[in-house]
Amino acid sequence: MRHSTPTRHRTSPAFRSLRLVLVGVLVAVGLVGVLNVSRAPDSEAVDMSQFRPGNIISDAVFFDTGTMSVAQIQSFLDAQGSRCTDAYCLKHINLISVNKAADAYCNGYASPGYEKAATIIWKVAQSCGVNPQVILVMLQKEQGLVTTTAPTDGKYRAAMGMGCPDTSACDAQYYGFGNQVYAGIRQMRVYELSGRYTWNNPGTSPTIRYHPNAACGGTPVYIENQATANLYYYTPYQPNAASIAAGAGTGDSCSSYGNRNFYRYFSDWFGSTQGGAVRLIRTAADPTVYLIDGLRRWSVASLDDYNELIQVFGPLNTVSASFVNRYAAAGATSTILHDTGSGAISLVQDGTLHRFASCDQVAIWGGSCASLTSAHPAMFAGTTAGPEMSSWARVGAGARPVLLSSSGAAQPYWDAEAVRALTGSPLGWTARMGDARYAAFTKAPTLFAPATLVRDAASPQVYLTDGTNTLLPVADFAATTELGRASSTLQTVTAADLTGYRPAGTKVETAVTCGGSTYVAGTGTLHRLANPAAAGLPTVALQPQTCAQLALGGRAVASGLLVKKAGDATVYSVEQGVRRAVLSWSDAQRIGGEGDPTIVTMTADGLARIPAGGARLRDASLVKPSSSPEVLVVSGDKLARIPSFAMAAQWGIPSSFATVSTADLGTRTRVADLSLWGRCGTDLVAAASGKVSRVTGADAAQGFAVQEWTTEACATFDRTGPTVPRLFVKASNDATVLAAEGGTYRPVTSWDALVRLNGGGTPVVLTVDPGVASGLPRGAAVS
Predict the structure, then answer these.
(1) How far apart are CA 605 and CA 452, in angstroms?
(2) I need a labelling partner for 328 at 20 to 30 A (CA). Which of 122, 517, 572, 705 fits?
(3) What digits encode the pLDDT tens for the residues 619-628?
(4) Residue 113 burial (CB count, 10 A)
């Protein structure tokens, strides 16, 4: 009847497996001629030092339902039972299977009545989610059914030992091969899923005995996974040291063999119990590595292929020659594999599988859809899908990206940045291609990202790539640094790398023309110039692809160009290719635009590329040389001494002044002292009380020094003074009118004389500062 203790569903392996070993010994010495037992594991193939009581078999292997098909199971039974010739052999017999309803543990079983053992094993494995290899091992370790040459009804009736306790007869409700296999494997899922079995759960450290005799003792075992827990629920003993040391033989009186033999049979027949199913094998005597699937083996073509395959299908298992020979030779394999289930053709690389989109892509990588390593879907269970293959590859020691075509053409790019710059898309993951395969392609010249610094290793000349065909000479790294290309980004290449490029005569500058606009560069950012002619900087025209790589989004320079050095507050105005220090913020605003003008920040070296001139002295402003008591007014490249601050005030020029060095004054020339007379463009003008009046008389200023004001200076004046034919002035505190004539100011003694001097019209008299009036040169009175 069925045993009530959940940990003991079958006859104790400590005794049944021992009986099998002893019978084998008797057969060997000729004392037993009628009994046949299972073949012991191949000691050449199994290293028992690798047995781990806490991890007898991994979950990945135990629950891998895709390791064998029905045909592969049948082939396995044929091979292992080759010495059995009876129609009652497991490989031959048709057995009764039983209908089973689906439940929480298995998906049920639909029986047609009689079925081959291979079919029952496979269907139960799929229904209950357990590796069919596990079922084969359990059939062997429980009754020796896989290899026996003399099967009996009793062996089939208790094939899995399910419902066969140590202390009584087997429970009849579990009789029969199909019943035994389904119930025994279902019980494995009951252990896992029912919640009733907790004492051997993964993560616990129960004391596992060595033997049913409690006096033999045991040790705490840390249970690493569910599969191992299941085996201990089914067979609650671990092998002691004597059992392990005995290998396939007999230990001592406290030895048990059930879980030891599970490990030995599985390892001998199917390879490692750890990780995924065994896929890569070799023998100790032969370095050839094979990829195995089902009953086929492919030799691994190269060390590079092996290094890729082992990341997905490893570890490499050293096995016996007999183990290798169980698999039929199927030729050589590369890293291009075909999943017969999904139809996917993939490249194995970097530990993942990368699917090809077409047979053309397969051909690019040296494969052929007509001749593939085609494997069962089980081989791909647990593998990781990586990014799909594309028309790109990486080649050579530098892993350079290359665009490949099925026509055999290859377009190499220097790096991923070149791909992004020239194609508009990031490169993404790209498979590596070996040198031998790449040698078959016809290669175009290498392409660099536009605006890349390059140097032929055989030459000191540095270039900036322009577009995809031009090299701009770099005179110094100052200009390229401002463009955002520091010397640290320099790529040292070979002459062969540059075969697609030709040097140009124009060198790299900090001002560039892109799309019809001129930009000035500063610390990696480029600013559009509204008036590049005024700045006067040397400029180089760049191709659109190069411009696209530069940071053209800097704040535009709306008026005059202002620059400064990073970390220094001094601002310079750049005019006609010369930089001049700006002495005040108000001057900077006037030059660069009122409010918040754009100031381009440069590196020290970049700023030094622009020739320095004297300070940028604002026109119509006052300066005082540090070495002189004089105060001067500025107008372009001219300097005029002011006789008094009052005279400057007649022009509306504030009395504040900047003290400057002789160097700041530069090469400006001295002209006559400031007077009331000046010229703005073609207009003759005169100043009085802060306003400027236009004087229309052709000879009105004859004999006087006339100040030539720049446009900038004139723009600062208040030009709302009255227009007059000639100049009459008076002091604000004196009624005497002075007529400017012939270089002097003549007092006019009567109204009639004043009208007459004005040509008969009503005269306009301008009022000036008394101090200015007193300093005017006097001529003879007019009466």
Answers:
(1) 20
(2) 122
(3) 999 999 999 9
(4) 10
